[in-house]
Design brief:
The chain has nine helices and ten strands. The chain is an alpha/beta fold.
């Protein structure tokens, strides 16, 4: 029984060893990313990393809980997530603070107003995509017990499915701003501001503890952090 308890740890150690040997042989880095991050936020910085470092990055995209498990079991060299639960043996750093945007169909009355009070949220179903993103937890932290009264409808499976449902007039949704930049620019969706402090999510970059700075995964992590810091500086100072 005691041996069985250690089996997952032993498997993770063996997988990590195999990944280390593969990296020394020049194999592609294994990056696991939560769906919204991998789909909407990573392509440009990964392309730049390949141009600068010359190493390929194999990007695995999936649900946040699956990303965390993949990292823990040694199937990923590092990960980018919408949350991190402080599992031992890893270091997590804030990568990108991404605003949450309330979206509705362009013809919705809220779109014409442009701003609503949070107390109006229960009037409209809030559509949810992939489970396990941490958005519900964020809403409870912000609104307390009021969040329990929101009319949430989940099960859409992805942000793309949510966006199509919102365009069809089935409800509103709170999504990461990066996931709807194209739709807001073309007017196929409308953003509605919420009174009060803005909602934002701290995405996390997670990698094994005590990784040497010269390790390929550490170089990729440093590149992603620099790229995001540069992007943030550019948004803060457009004239620079």
């Amino acid at each position: 029984v005691q041996g069985a308890a250690f089996r997952p740890l032993a498997q993770a150690l063996l997988a990590t060893e195999a990944r280390a040997r593969a990296q020394l042989a020049g194999a592609a880095l294994q990056l696991a990313a939560a769906s919204n991050i991998g789909t909407y936020m990573l392509q440009d910085p990964l392309s730049a990393f390949h141009d600068q470092d010359g190493r390929e990055v194999a990007l695995w995209i999936g649900a946040n809980p699956a990303v965390a498990d993949r990292l823990q079991h040694g199937a990923a060299d590092l990960a980018l997530m919408e949350w991190w639960d402080d599992r031992p043996g890893f270091t997590a750093r804030i990568w990108r603070v991404e605003p949450l945007v309330l979206i509705v169909a362009p013809g919705h009355p809220w779109a014409a107003r442009g701003r609503i009070a949070p107390a109006e949220l229960p009037e409209m179903p809030l559509l949810g995509g992939e489970p396990g993103t941490g958005t519900g937890r964020l809403l409870r932290e912000r609104f307390g017990e009021f969040a329990d009264g929101l009319r949430t409808i989940g099960g859409f499976g992805s942000t793309e499915a949510v966006k199509r449902a919102v365009r069809a007039g089935r409800g509103a949704s709170l999504v990461l701003a990066a996931t709807v930049s194209d739709e807001l620019a073309t007017g196929s969706l409308a953003a509605v501001a919420l009174d009060g402090p803005p909602l934002a999510k701290e995405t996390r970059l997670v990698l094994p503890q005590d990784l040497p700075e010269t390790a390929p995964a550490a170089r990729l992590a440093a590149h992603l952090l620099r790229a995001q810091a540069h992007a943030s500086d550019g948004r803060a100072s457009p004239g620079c």
